[in-house]
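Reposting from the mailing list since nobody answered there.

I have sequence plus structure tokens for a pair of proteins and want to know whether others read the tokens the same way I do. The first protein:
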Amino acid sequence: MTEKRFAGKSVIVTGAGNGLGRAYAEAFAAEGASVTVADIDLSAAREAARAIEGSAPVGVDVADEESVASMVATAVGRFGGVDVLINNAGLHMGQYNLTSTLPLADWRRLFDVNVFGAALCARHSRDAMVSRGGGVILNQSSNSSYLGGGAYSVSKLALNGLTLSLAREFAQDGIRVLGIAPGMIASEAVLERLEDTSKQRILGEQLIRRFGRAEDLVGMALLLCSDDASFVTGQTVTVDGGFIKRV
């Protein structure tokens, strides 16, 4: 039997209570990892963890340093350290499409979560990775970071910069830092909200004429965090069906 890629590894996934975060958590567990299922909604984290054998649910506000430190301590206490950190937690589009009129308090909250939250999680995971001989940090970005889609896009572009900066800073510790930038990943709920004309417009702007699926991201995340990508760091990899190549 082929050994699973993350057998014996400890993985933290933030924003893992639902959606893509939960998909990441389930995928790493299926590849043998012990997963710390972290979410600001502890009940959602617990529900997700019940479906993932050997996982540990934990509540975390990534914008709060004490909360982040507690999350990492849970992973270390349960699983002996941290090998992989998936910085998936984030605030999304909607009101954050605005730029010039977005209240300053909202700008700050957006950056607290999408940028500073990732930095805090990386900072507090560093020693726990060093104790294991190194590790991988994967930051969840967005292809909108290259497209100018409002305040949300600005925060994700800043996250791309953080990815490169951390890659340079953490390389001495054997820690690789990468980003993954999805395009339109269509859940059932998203497809129900989109009108047919909107669906056709989006597909027409992609080189690959189908909507992205969670497994498209999961496959890339598993690859980037595995030893198969051991010579890759500092990159933010776009997974969007070629959308940004058309604009």
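The second protein, same order (residues first, tokens after):
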Amino acid sequence: LKPAWPGAGFDLSGAALPGHEKPSRGNRLSGIVVIKIHHLRPGAEADFASRFEADAIPVLAALGARPLAAFVTEHAANSFPRLPVRSGENVFISVAAFGSADAHARHEAALSGSPQWQAFEREAQSCLAGSTETLRLSPTSRSLFGR
């Protein structure tokens, strides 16, 4: 994978790992990280990424998401064969943070009622080759993203 546009990778500037605390109820992170995997038609990466940056990111942010990164498949030979990569995949991946699982649920409900989001989904449909997968991750106590 590679950043979907300049600056779309994770911005870790100024980030510092939390201390080595033993995980407990008191220091458990309430935030979640949501990764969406959009399966794209061959050759649709640039069009989908452009639409996502221009049309989706502002709506996602306005409705409570904290966009963290966006990536597309990098079609290149594997230069590190000890780390196998899947070939034949054509995806766009978005990563966003939410303050809690409830905040994410409210965000999804707001998206379903948003005319701007519905317009983005209609326009982006021509780029998609399959359904979108959603992964909801709970950050660990030393995560840079769950705060």
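Reply #1 (J.P.):
I read it the same way you do. The mean pLDDT is 89.
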